[in-house]
Recombination protein RecR (Neorhizobium galegae), 402 residues
Amino acid sequence: MAKRVTGPEIEKLIQLLAKVPGLGPRSARRAALHLIKKKEQLLGPLSSAMGEAYDKVKICSRCGNVDTVDPCTVCTDLHRDQTMLIVVEDVSDLWALERTGAMNTAYHVLGGTLSPLDGIGPDDLNIRGLIDRVNEGVIREIIIAVNATVEGQTTAHYITDQLSGIDVKITRLAHGVPVGGELDYLDEGTLTAALRARTVI
Amino acid sequence: MAKRVTGPEIEKLIQLLAKVPGLGPRSARRAALHLIKKKEQLLGPLSSAMGEAYDKVKICSRCGNVDTVDPCTVCTDLHRDQTMLIVVEDVSDLWALERTGAMNTAYHVLGGTLSPLDGIGPDDLNIRGLIDRVNEGVIREIIIAVNATVEGQTTAHYITDQLSGIDVKITRLAHGVPVGGELDYLDEGTLTAALRARTVI
């Protein structure tokens, strides 16, 4: 800004809001003004909710999920099938898969993917914890649900290698046409995979 | 979510973040996870900044700007030309005009536009305060910088009417082709205005 037009506390709030993913400098200003206009309904409650999250948030020492208890809600859910484990890159993937309601299993969050160029090796991911869990002998199937990227697939291969001596079924998500997707807009790799994995009607 | 996968405090944080303009339910989850991952660098400072804004924010009783002091930084800036007043709908417009650095004047925030369908009449806007300021006798020119919408123009006409007895010059922003804009994408109204207000090169 050419000149100061508001208080330093409000400028500080705008600067911090601009670092939230989904907001940029312009939308951070809009967001700050909206929060100020909705002071009682939004700014106050959000400030408290952030303070409470700051005080209470924990990373589950077993699966890597984000929660306010450790072990987390998912790990201590007795109604889940503990013989199946879905391995994901990130907590957001765990939450996305849970929203489908399709499975009722345990999870394991790696915390990223192998990426030698970024200096991320096996020790930077929660792979040791995964092998320990499998060695407990309860898990019968591991579904590796990593992103269909080069890094994701490299990580999947590495995990499969590490588990090669253990008697556990390892599966991965199917490739194919997204539901609602138009063939015209899909890449050749997806179409090839969908053709190869075609099913009888 | 089909089942609870995280703590109620974190779900509450996500719900509140989803009410911030620019974020929806999906990006609120992404934002919450990012805040939690950057707990010390972002979640803590943002929580404090919101708390401080909540405690200190004030609406300037003279011009309607948002600040932590009243009268605000703009109203008490002795280097501004107090004989010119820019009238805007919203605080965000004041900030946007200030970022241009083009003018160095006083401001007046109406707090919206006249909109009979939404039940917003003259008494719901800060028009009385504007007339009082003009009656002080210092202001020589009022630039009405409201949006080029029907409501904005209606409000501009109403203000001009209200000030008709007072010796003050009233101007409005020019219409024309936006800088960097392509004629092909502009509406007929803008092109007509740009043609009528053409200038000699």
